[in-house]
């Protein structure tokens, strides 16, 4: 009896990881060079060496494509380690925020996305859901561990703590335009811990 003919997979099953990776790199390059407003699906497809249909098989629109690619990079760079101490965790997270904001391409992409989000509520919500919330969730896990270790009081204001952990480095990098050195990160970590009323675990 002859073997049944195998059908070529279609839809999501047919998406090749190498092409997806090439498209993602092209999206980041186009964003860094031309910005959100001037990025086109045609330019991304040409840079990636694929047909435009390859993009639409993966994402229904330009915004969906950009959000998917930038969120994958951003969440991946959100380090939330367990060093065994809150100070160690905070120092590592501050370093991760600095690395994210000074990333060779993302440092050029992020300010443009924020500017566009201020003009486009739908984009703002999409960035919050895909980048802001996952990153904050990882840091919340670190704070919860610190509470369990006795380094933070149980009534610690998580939302305020999350803002503190990002705000100082963001201001230093994005507003002042200065890359933070190790001493700055150490002093920032100690300032954040004092503000949160942290204490050494018993």
List keywords for this structure.
mainly alpha, 202 residues, disordered N terminus, single chain, 9 helices
Global mean pLDDT:
88
What would you call the structural class? mainly alpha
What count of helical segments does DSSP give? Answer: 9
- Give helix and strand order, one letter per element, not per position: HHHHHHHHH
What is the terminal-to-terminal distance? Answer: 73 Å
Question: Spans of 5+ residues with little confidence (pLDDT < 50)?
Answer: 1-13
**Backbone shape:** elongated
Helical fraction = 55-70%
Radius of gyration: 21 Å
Approximate strand percentage: under 5%
Describe the protein.
- With 202 residues, the chain is an all-alpha fold.
- The protein has nine helices and no strands.
- It has helices at residues 17-38, 41-48, 52-56, 62-76, 86-101, 106-119, 121-149, 158-175, 182-195.
Q: How does the SSE layout of this entry go?
A:
Blueprint (H helix, E strand, L loop, with lengths): L16 H22 L2 H8 L3 H5 L5 H15 L9 H16 L4 H14 L1 H29 L8 H18 L6 H14 L7
Helix pairs in contact: 1-2, 1-4, 1-6, 4-7, 5-8, 5-9, 6-7, 8-9
What's a quick, concise take on this entry?
The protein has 202 residues and is mostly helical.
């Amino acid at each position: 009896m002859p073997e049944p003919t195998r059908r070529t997979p279609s839809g999501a099953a047919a998406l090749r990881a190498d092409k997806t990776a090439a498209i993602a790199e092209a999206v980041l390059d186009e964003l860094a060079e031309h910005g959100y407003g001037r990025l086109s699906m045609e330019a991304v497809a040409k840079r990636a060496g694929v047909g435009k249909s390859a993009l639409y098989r993966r994402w229904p629109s330009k915004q969906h494509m950009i959000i998917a690619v930038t969120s994958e990079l951003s969440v991946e760079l959100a380090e939330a380690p367990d060093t065994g101490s809150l100070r160690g965790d905070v120092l590592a997270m501050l370093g991760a925020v600095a690395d994210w904001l000074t990333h060779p391409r993302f440092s050029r992409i992020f300010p443009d996305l924020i500017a566009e989000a201020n003009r486009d509520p739908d984009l703002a919500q999409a960035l919050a859901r895909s980048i802001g919330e996952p990153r904050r969730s990882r840091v919340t896990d670190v704070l919860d561990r610190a509470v369990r270790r006795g380094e933070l009081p149980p009534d610690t204001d998580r939302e305020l703590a999350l803002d503190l952990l990002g705000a100082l480095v963001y201001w230093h990098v994005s507003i002042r335009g200065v890359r933070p050195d190790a001493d700055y990160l150490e002093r920032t970590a100690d300032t954040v811990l004092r503000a949160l009323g942290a204490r050494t675990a018993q």
